[in-house]
Structure formats: structure tokens, C-alpha cells
Amino acid sequence: MEAGLELLSEQGKEAVSLREIARKCRVSPRAPYQHFADKTDFLAALAEEGFKEFGAAMARAEGDFSGLAQAYLDFAVRKPALMQLMFGDDFEDRAKRNPTLHDAALATFGQLEEQIARLHPDRDERSHRLLAVNAWALIHGLSELLRHGQLAHVLPGESSTKAVVDSAVELFSRADRGDAQTRRPSSSSKKKERRSS
Fold this sequence. Notes:
Elements: H1 2-11, H2 18-25, H3 39-59, H4 65-78, H5 80-86, H6 94-97, H7 99-119, H8 125-147, H9 151-154, H10 162-173, H11 175-183, H12 187-196
Helix pairs in contact: 3-4, 3-5, 3-7, 4-8, 4-10, 7-8
């Protein structure tokens, strides 16, 4: 596993093969097949390990949603190839074929969902999940922009992602207030109600 993670980090998933892993570990070419059916099975194990490490990094984050978001971005910047594997499309029908990987991935999403629930305790479970999906999309999108060096073009004076993360936290913290304003009747509608009564 260590050899696989190292090869993935240095050369990308295309370079990962069970034969190369055997060579790096100085074992026979058939030895890895005692543990993994094929390359996809091995990559799934690497992705599962990645999600466990990813979840532990977010669990160690201090503070609330802001700390978790920063931990997400830091992990993505440190381990871009692993993140690509974890969130890529290599594992078709993941829940059925790679259930432990699937569970590890959902566990990290659950951490994000818990933070959203703390921000909005009065909302129901479905609302928490929808907000968490949007928060996930925003943070993961930021990680991709960082990976490709795009943020530097529009925020040239920023030396870190803290300002962007703080802005995202503010956005999701205001979600309830925005809904309340949307639900509140306007002054014109109140006048119409009085005239009709």
C-alpha cells in the first residue's frame, strides 16, 4: 500500500500496476494477486486508505465549518493525485463492488453534513444534506482551482485560502436568514391582503 501511494503521488494512477508494485516491494510478480484481484481492486484500496486519512485530517481540524473546510483544501493541495483517485470515476457501481470504499467516502461527507447541521439546527435532515452537497461542491471546486493555480489570477494578493474559506462560511451561515427574508411577505403584498379583507 505504501509503495502504491508513493507511485500514485509521483507518477499518477496510470503508472500504478501490480507488476510495478511487486518490483518496488521486491516480491514475485504474482505476489500482489494474493491480496488484490486486479489493478482496479488495488486502486480501490488506495482510495479507501485516502478517504480514511482524509477523514482523520478533517476530524483533527480545530473550530467549526471553517476549520473543516481549510483541512479539506490543505489535504487536496498536499495530495492532488490521491484526491483525483478518490473522487474520480474509476469505481463503477462503487456501493456494490467496493462497499468498504463506499462507506469510507460517505463517512467523510457525513463530517461535512454534521458541521452544516450545527450551523442550522432548526432545519430538517434533508435540508442539511442539500446544504452539505452545496458546501462540498464549493470547497471541492476551490480545491480544483487551487490545484490548477487559477485563484492566483483573480486573487493575486492573497497568500492563503483563509479569506476564501471565511467567505464560504459566511455564505452558508447566512442561508437561514436569506430564507427568512424570502418567506417574509413584502409590504406591497401586505397592502393587497388588507384591501382584499
